[in-house]
Specification:
This protein has three domains: about 70 residues, no CATH class; about 70 residues; about 110 residues, Dna Topoisomerase Vi A Subunit, Chain: A, domain 2, CATH 3.40.1360. The radius of gyration is 23 Å and the shape is elongated. It contains seven helices and 14 strands. The strands form three sheets. It has a five-stranded antiparallel β-sheet, with no helix packed on it. A five-stranded mixed β-sheet has the order 10-12-11-13-14. A four-stranded antiparallel β-sheet has the order 1-2-3-4. It is about 30% helix and about 25% strand. α4 links the parallel β11 and β12.
């Protein structure tokens, strides 16, 4: 029998799909006909602490494997999210017209002249669209007049997607918020600024980040513990990437010289 820590071993698709369709309580076991060879009552499946461990006892088949139930749930959640994304459209009160005085002040304050933006007429917010593979999958709005909340999501996927901006695919810098991501991409050429838009990393975030040669975690100073946690998590997940924690003195959107120089040194290999 497989050790539960083993993710998959010799796992043909029929057996995998069959096991994924089953619902077993913790500690429950079943003896079934094998989906691969058809062996009568030769196929066993057990839920061992959240891992579905299975094996065919027919010598000519011997299919076996293990699947974490959390992975099954994640795939189911991804399928649901993908269907939700197809239905996303901006509310009617969000316009492309960003010529009003409040938006102009906001754009000039953070030097966002080259950033895609919309305006929320109803709630008076600067709206940043969120794209995935050239498709708008959501949007996040920043208050222009101190109304609550400061940041507002217009989609139902608040912790699923991330906001990213930049040109380079070799260096990704994880930051605290959308404005910091845009400032970073403007101030430091050839990097991608990435705002997670949630309190934790999910597999979709990590799958995207592992495409970078270098990943820099540069969250705000008051998020030191989260910086450590993100760095540790990414090092174990993105094994082919160089993951670096960067302690900064202030929120990156304020463009402190020391912070920008430190990041430039990391990005360009001089620090």
């Amino acid at each position: 029998m497989l050790c539960p820590e083993e993710e998959t071993i010799n796992m043909p698709s029929l057996a995998r799909e069959y096991v994924e369709s089953l619902t077993l309580e913790y500690g429950e076991s079943l003896t079934l006909n094998c989906p691969e060879c058809g062996g009568h009552k030769k196929f066993s499946v057990s839920n061992l602490d959240g891992t579905l461990v299975y094996n065919c006892y027919r010598n000519s088949c011997a299919v076996k494997g293990a699947i974490k139930t959390s992975n099954i749930l994640q795939r189911m959640a991804n399928d649901i999210v993908d269907r939700m994304v197809e239905d996303f459209v901006l509310p009617e009160y969000i316009t492309k017209d960003i010529s009003n005085a409040s938006m102009k002040r906001f754009i000039n304050r953070w030097e966002l002249q080259n950033v895609a933006l919309y305006y929320d007429v109803k709630d008076r917010r600067a709206v940043f669209p969120i794209y995935e593979k050239s498709r708008m999958v959501g949007a996040i709005g920043r208050s222009l007049h101190d109304n609550f909340p400061k940041w507002l999501r217009y989609d139902k996927l608040a912790n699923y997607y991330h906001y990213r901006i930049g040109e380079d695919i070799s260096v990704g810098v994880v930051v605290e918020d959308v404005i910091s991501a845009t400032v970073l991409a403007t101030e430091i050429p050839k990097v991608t600024g990435i705002a997670i838009l949630g309190t934790s990393l999910n597999d979709k975030h990590k799958d995207y980040l592992k495409g970078f040669e270098t990943i820099v975690v540069a969250l705000d100073p008051d998020a030191a513990s989260k910086t450590v946690a993100y760095t540790k998590e990414l090092k174990s997940y993105c094994i082919n990437s160089n993951v670096i924690a960067c302690r900064i003195e202030d929120d990156l959107k304020y463009k402190r010289d020391n912070d920008l120089k430190k990041l430039q040194g990391i990005v360009h290999g001089t620090d």
